[in-house]
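Weekly modeling sync, notes
Attendees: S.R. (lead), two postdocs, one rotation student

Agenda item 3: backlog of single-chain predictions. S.R. asked that every request posted to the team notebook include the full sequence so nobody has to chase files. The rotation student volunteered to paste the first one in as an example of the format we agreed on. Action items at the bottom.

Example entry:
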Amino acid sequence: MKSKKIPMRRCIVCGTSLPKQELIRIVTGEDGVVVVDPTGRKNGRGAYICRNMDCAAKAGKKKLISAEALEALEMLIKE
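Predicted structure, as returned to the notebook:
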């Protein structure tokens, strides 16, 4: 019996490869706005960030995500 392949993704901040479920997806929608996608199913160009405050803070400092997306990301991490 074959084992199921686990999809791996890389954090855009620290570069760590982790299973897709352990990361948070952020999406650039059609209107160009970057939003947090907790379900991982929104349409648009996506990237992944680790579920820790260090990566979230660095993403904000590097201007990878907007202030609103950073706030939503931090709230998701605290849960």
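Discussion: group reviewed the output briefly. The chain has a mean pLDDT of 91.
Action items: rotation student to repeat for the remaining queue; S.R. to check formatting next week.
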